[in-house]
Structures are given as C-alpha cells and as structure tokens.
Amino acid sequence: MASVSYQPTAADQTNRIIAIGFGVFAALYAFTFLLLVLVTVGVFAGLGVTMTRETGDNTNAGIAVLGSVLTIVFYAVLALIFVLPPALACWKMLKRRPAGRRWGIVAALSVAPILPLGTALTVFSLKFLIGAEGRLFYQNLAIISNDTLLL
C-alpha cells in the first residue's frame, strides 16, 4: 500500500511564510517594548532615589512609583496595539483558521511603518490576503471548518 503524502499548495506556502513573518514582528515588538519598560522604570527609580536623597524627603519616592506605573500602562497599551495583532495573525494563519485573513490584514497595517521589512511584509501579505488567491484559500478554509462542525 503506497503512502499518500500531503503536498502543500502555493497558497498554503504563502500563508505560512506570511504567518512566520508576523510572528517574527510580534516577537520583535514584544522584546522592544519589554526592554523599553525595563529602561524607563529604571530611569524613574533612579530619579526617585536621587530626589529622595537630595531633599531628604521620602515622599519624593512617589515620583518613581507613579512614573513606573504610568510607564507600564503606556507600554501595555502599545503592546495591545502593536504586538497582539501580529501575534494573533501568526497563530490563526499557522493554524489555518478562517479568521486568519482578517487578523492578517490588521497585522499588516500594524507592521507597515517599520521600514523596509515591515513595509515589504505588508505589501506581500495584503497582495495575498486581499487578492483572489488568498480570498479563495480562506473561503475554502471556512467551508471546510463549517463542514467539520456539522459532522
């Protein structure tokens, strides 16, 4: 009995390449924001310690706490805007979920400002996701997922 192996289509391979690209950008964004949080919290902690020692008033340490909290909130909001869409697009596209197309379009817009690789990934992904090949690929996935729900 001959074994039948799965041969991915060109659309399958394109989808996987785009998903990996979004995953790389999500990791880069997350790592960058994490480093920025650490540096900024360190700056505010240093500012609070310096102000406390210089004036002798312990209430100046509140500057460090307030600045650190605001920094963490600020970068958490940026992470929701810039890390979450590419990460979800990567996950949904690799798992071949029908929602991957929508998340891919949103993620493409969030990585567009990063020159030149983000812009290249945006053009490549939007050409695939909005074009006929990607639309047909995700329509077939939606049909398959609806059929499996009925079984």
Write a structural description.
The protein has 151 residues and is mainly alpha-helical. The protein has one domain. 82% of the residues lie in helices and 0% in strands. The protein is built from 6 helices and no strands. It has helices spanning 10-55, 61-82, 84-94, 100-111, 117-130, 132-150. Helix 1 crosses helix 4 and helix 4 packs antiparallel against helix 5 (117-130). The longest helix has 46 residues, at 10-55. The radius of gyration is 22 Å and the shape is elongated.
Arithmetic mean pLDDT? 88
Structural class: mainly alpha
Number of helices: 6
Uncertain stretches: none
Order of helices and strands: HHHHHH
Terminal CA distance: 28 Å
The strand count comes to 0
Global shape: elongated
Tally of structural domains:
1
> What's the gyration radius in Å?
22 Å
Largest sheet: none
The fraction of residues assigned to DSSP E strands is: under 5%
**Could you estimate the helical fraction of the residues in percent?**
over 70%
